[in-house]
Model the fold of this input.
Amino acid sequence: MDELIQIMVVDDHHIVRQGLVALIGTLPDMKVVAQASDGSEAVDLYRVHRPDITLMDLRLPKQNGVEAITHIREEFPSARIIVLTTFDGDEDIYRALQAGAKGYLLKGMNADELTDAIRTVHGGKSRIPAVVAERLAERMGGPSLTGRELDVLKRIVGGRSNKEIASDLFISEATVKTHINSILSKLGVNDRTQAATTALQRGIVHLD
Amino acid sequence: MDELIQIMVVDDHHIVRQGLVALIGTLPDMKVVAQASDGSEAVDLYRVHRPDITLMDLRLPKQNGVEAITHIREEFPSARIIVLTTFDGDEDIYRALQAGAKGYLLKGMNADELTDAIRTVHGGKSRIPAVVAERLAERMGGPSLTGRELDVLKRIVGGRSNKEIASDLFISEATVKTHINSILSKLGVNDRTQAATTALQRGIVHLD
DNA sequence: AGAATACTCCACCAAAAGGTTGAGGCCCTA
DNA sequence: TAGGGCCTCAACCTTTTGGTGGAGTATTCT
Done:
């Protein structure tokens, strides 16, 4: 190991950054060269430091993790980014992987898992747990919501009635019902309340 | 400062513990004497180490934070516990404060806020943000759900219909409707979907 | 004992939501 | 250009949900 692996840490929680820095500080072959606390800062600092590896939380202010990953990889297609997340089963994980993330870690991981992932991804390989890979495949095959259906679903979660959704989106209530029908069947649920909770559970929409 | 403030850190995320330890390690007047990753371990380690201050996450495996706080303060009424949480507006915060927590911090805090809180609580005072104190007062005054209403609300969040809830709880559908009526008015919402999402938002129930 | 609270249930009604079928317009791609 | 996906809308029907008012029982607190 001649050269240290240069790492950027992106997380809005000071403590988590501190933890990652502390953890990485104990390792001989890597070091943290930059820290960002939101998505825009992450993009800016990436340009400046060009880290070998970026550890990125998905829930961020200003610009979320997926957007940040997208922007970074537009400019630097070779960027190696590992997603860090608190929540298992979050839809955003899949979006992040599609946006070009090369690894995925839960915050509950231990030090070995972290360093493994960093070294693996730095070596040019991917580090995605089998379970996630499976679900990613499933998801690809599975039905995905259209843009309009997402609009409606978000408002269902927001507690809006069909009539309100109709006027929100400038469409008729009949159309709203049509969309809801396909949402329910695509999500495999029976009513709007189930749609709301499974959408939250799968991370398709967030409460923020 | 003759004696170091002895601190126990309780969090299931290794990284967060590491971050807290690292942060506290830079301070001259305090040190971490124990770390626990779940509620039961926290209770056990409290008995052994009797820390001056306990920093406790609320979402924990085995025994959640509120339970752990309750148990610790049953045995050691003078225990000084500061709640650490990721989520603002979580109902559990209020439960934790009622269970005897003396302070409350979001994980997004900075180092100064943390040390402030630790020193304040160690000095025997409380450290609860004005906003939270207000809402705590509101909550006390505000209507609270009865046990049965909670049973029903949980099932609403679970996506069950009135009929299903009735058979779940061995009561008639009419009774379910009665409960739902008071749930809706107590939560100040118009329908079950709103009830579900605001219950989740306020942390009255969780998806887990 | 009386009041308050929680839990149970009924009836009736109105509104909202969900299921089904069919159909026209738009845009993109094979 | 023909099909496919998406968005739009309509009519019709059934089921579910929510609103209102009343009522009986058990328990607990005063």
